[in-house]
Amino acid sequence: MSKKREALLTSAERLFYENGFHSIGIKRVHEEADVSLMTLYNHFQSKEELILEVLKKREERYFELLETNSPTILSIATAHLDWLQSHQNGCLFLRAKEEFPEKNHLIYQYVINHKNHLISFVEGCGYSAKESFRLALLLEGATAMSEIHDTNEVREETLSMIRTLLQK
Questions:
Q1: Helix ranges restricted to H, 20-128
Q2: Ranges for the HTH tetR-type domain (predicted)?
Q3: What is the pTM of this model?
């Protein structure tokens, strides 16, 4: 990936994460990335294409983190909770879904696929569909609660619930 494209994606992700998608214009992204507007449009044909690429790169980093340890329910949960502690401003994917609520919109569809990807990822680690869905529910709940509660407390209670479930 070119350095300018990487700068655009990094700046866009930070700006969108801190301010939302609709409140940030293309001009602000190219200025923050210190690249020309023409360069931005050479890499991305539209703001929506830029948003989709930001989400794609974020998803890649997230799943790389989940894959770093042996894929057990506890290690997947721990990796997710590590992610929450380093990204304490909520879920960028759910924000995208809120700002692009039309069900046939590409961004909305990408978010739905991302959320389902977690379930399939866990299933791919050898867990049943029901176990995978339950873990996704716990992790999504942890994500939501981390927006309004201390992430250390959210981490502790989420891991406690998972350990309890694993004992049964």
A1: 26-33, 37-43, 47-66, 73-86, 92-99, 106-124
A2: 2-62
A3: 0.93
